[in-house]
Amino acid sequence: QVQLVESGGGLVQEGGSLRLSCTATGTMFSINAMGWYRQAPGKQRELVATIGGGGRTKYADSVKGRFTISRDNAENTVYLQMNSLKPEDTAVYYCNVDVIVGPLGKYWGQGTQVTVSS
Fold first, then answer.
1. Pick from 60, 68, 71, 80: most CB atoms within 10 A?
2. Phi and psi torsions of 116, nearest 5°
3. Exposure string over 26-56, b if 16+ CB within 10 A, otherwise e
């Protein structure tokens, strides 16, 4: 099994910044894609950003130019730098990884709350 531990959420004012991190731990595994999703109250979970094993990135239109996803392969960690935050960014943010060697499958973090006040 692979476990994901997220950190970095919190309360921030509109226009502020936060950095989320998610580290995968376990035994004998390799990760391909890593990503961040979010779910606001009463809404479906949606993709925020993904990064492939080769570093190719994809962003939701709503966060382009404001959020940056990155990864540290040696540490099995994915980051989400969030700048110019808006109240509509308020949600629980979940990381997701695609394990391709070892315990195959897609794994989710426990979620971290991000709240942006106006």
1. 80
2. -115, 120
3. eeebebebbbbbbeeeeeeeeebbbbeeeee
Give the mean pLDDT per block of 10 residues along the chain (118 residues): 94 98 91 97 97 96 98 96 98 96 91 97
Please tell me the distance from the alpha carbon of residue 9 to that of residue 90, in angstroms, as a whole number. Answer: 10
Quick one: tokens of 64? Answer: 């382009």
Q: Partners of 89 in the beta sheet?
A: none
Rounded Cα distance, 5 and 92, in Å: 14
Which tokens go with 98?
Answer: 């695609």
Which residues neighbour 12 within 8 Å (Cβ) at sequence distance 6 or greater? Answer: 18, 85, 114, 115, 116, 117
One-letter amino acid of 83: N
**What is the Cα–Cα distance from 8 to 14, expressed in whole angstroms?**
17
